[in-house]
Amino acid sequence: MKNIAITIFSILIIAALGLYLVSFQVRETESCLMMTFGKASQPITEPGWYFKWPYPIQKPQKYDSRMKVYAPETEETTTAGGEPIIVNTYVVWRISDPLLYYNTTSKVSNFEEELLRSQIRNIQNSVIGRHEFSEFVNSDASKIVFESIENEMLSELRN
C-alpha cells in the first residue's frame, strides 16, 4: 500500500514537471512572442493555455500589454514670441504588437523610455514654438487652444 502511494505521487510529480516543460499560460494582461531557437517566430495576443517545445527549442517571451503611463520631468520651452513656459506632458501607451516591439527594442535596453523622452521633447518644443503665449494663458477663454495644441502633438507623435 505504501509503495502504491509513493508510485502515484512520483507519477504525478513527473507529469506536472512534463506539463511545465511543454506548456505555458498567457494571461489576459499579457501578450507573448514565441522564440524558436532565439528567433521571434509567432506573436500570441489571446489569453489561454498553449503548448511549446521544451526550453532549448522554444521559449515564450512575455510582455505586459496593459496601458502604461510615461510622464517625463517638467521642462521649460519657449513659445513663438520667445516667452518661456513650463510644460508637463505625459504619454499613455501599450504593447499591441509584440513582434514589432521586439524587433524595435531587442537591441537596446530602456528603449521605450529613451525613445519616448526624445520624441516628446522634440515634438513639444516644435509644436509649442509655433504658438503664441496668449494661446496658453489668456483672460478670454475662447482664445485658449489647448485642445488643438494637444491634437497637434498627438498627431506628430503618432507619425
Detailed description of the structure:
- With 159 residues, the protein is an alpha+beta fold.
- The chain has four helices and nine strands, in the order αβββββββββααα.
- The chain has helices spanning 2-22, 98-105, 111-128, 146-158, and strands at 23-26, 30-36, 39-44, 48-51, 58-64, 68-70, 75-78, 84-87, 91-93.
- The strands form four sheets. A three-stranded antiparallel sheet has the order 3-2-5, covered by helices on one side.
- Helix 3 crosses helix 4 (146-158).
- The longest helix has 21 residues, at 2-22.
- The chain is elongated.
- The chain starts with a helix and ends with a helix.
Q: How would you briefly describe this protein structure?
A:
The chain is α+β, with helices and mostly antiparallel strands. It has helices at 2-22, 98-105, 111-128, 146-158, and strands at 23-26, 30-36, 39-44, 48-51, 58-64, 68-70, 75-78, 84-87, 91-93.
